[in-house]
């Protein structure tokens, strides 16, 4: 098919290019865009984890949760709906889409100000703001994109991987 005009679908999101079993090898294009906001990779996890859960590299498989505050094994946050997914053919009993960079909801405890660096807390799967005295290389998950003014657990948007 040779065309010099746009190829338009009948309605928004009404056509796919290829399928999960019959995809294209290389796509040549000038630009792409994604509706969602993070880059994720699929990893095998110890259990099924909710969106926003903080995980580390370790456990019986590739990723798990931790109760170590400021854990330097930080891997990322379980994604909601990634804009791009790598390693999509990863298989296992439990696999998760792990946000490696970009904006994603994240479980946090304590007061957090927009721009604070976010690290693992002593509650499995939950982050907190960085305590500079406890900093370890590799412990930073990202930066808070929203503020939270209560001590209890909640969910805020963070930018994973941005230092």
Structure description:
The chain has about 160 residues and is mainly β. The protein contains no helices and ten strands. Strands 1, 2, 3, 4, 5, 6, 7, 8, 9 and 10 form a ten-stranded mixed sheet that branches. The protein is elongated. The model has no long low-confidence stretch (mean pLDDT about 90).
Give short descriptive properties of this protein.
163 residues, mainly beta, ten-stranded mixed beta sheet, 10 strands, elongated
Low-confidence stretches: none
Mean pLDDT: 90
Shape: elongated
In this structure, how is the largest beta sheet organized?
Answer: 10 strands, mixed
| Proportion of residues in helical segments | under 10%
**Beta-strand proportion:** 25-35%
Write a compact overview of the structure shown:
The protein is mostly beta strands. The relative contact order is 0.20.
Secondary structure layout:
Layout: E1 38-44, E2 54-57, E3 63-64, E4 74-78, E5 84-86, E6 95-108, E7 117-120, E8 127-129, E9 140-144, E10 154-160
Parallel strand pairs: 1-5
Antiparallel strand pairs: 1-6, 2-3, 2-4, 4-6, 6-10, 7-8, 7-9, 9-10
């Amino acid at each position: 098919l040779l065309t010099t005009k746009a190829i338009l679908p009948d309605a928004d999101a009404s056509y796919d290019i290829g399928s999960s079993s019959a995809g294209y090898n290389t796509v040549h294009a000038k630009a792409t865009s994604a509706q969602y906001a993070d880059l994720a990779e699929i990893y095998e996890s110890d259990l099924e984890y909710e969106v926003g859960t903080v995980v580390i590299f370790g456990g019986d498989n590739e990723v798990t949760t931790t109760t170590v505050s400021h854990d330097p094994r930080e891997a990322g946050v379980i994604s909601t709906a990634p804009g791009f997914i790598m390693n999509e053919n990863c298989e296992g009993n439990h696999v998760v889409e792990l946000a490696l960079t970009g904006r994603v909801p994240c479980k946090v405890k304590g007061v957090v100000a927009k721009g604070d660096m976010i690290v693992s807390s002593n509650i499995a799967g939950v982050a907190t703001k960085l305590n500079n005295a406890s900093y370890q290389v590799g412990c930073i998950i990202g930066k808070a994109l929203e503020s939270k003014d209560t001590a209890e657990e909640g969910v805020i948007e963070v930018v994973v991987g941005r230092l």
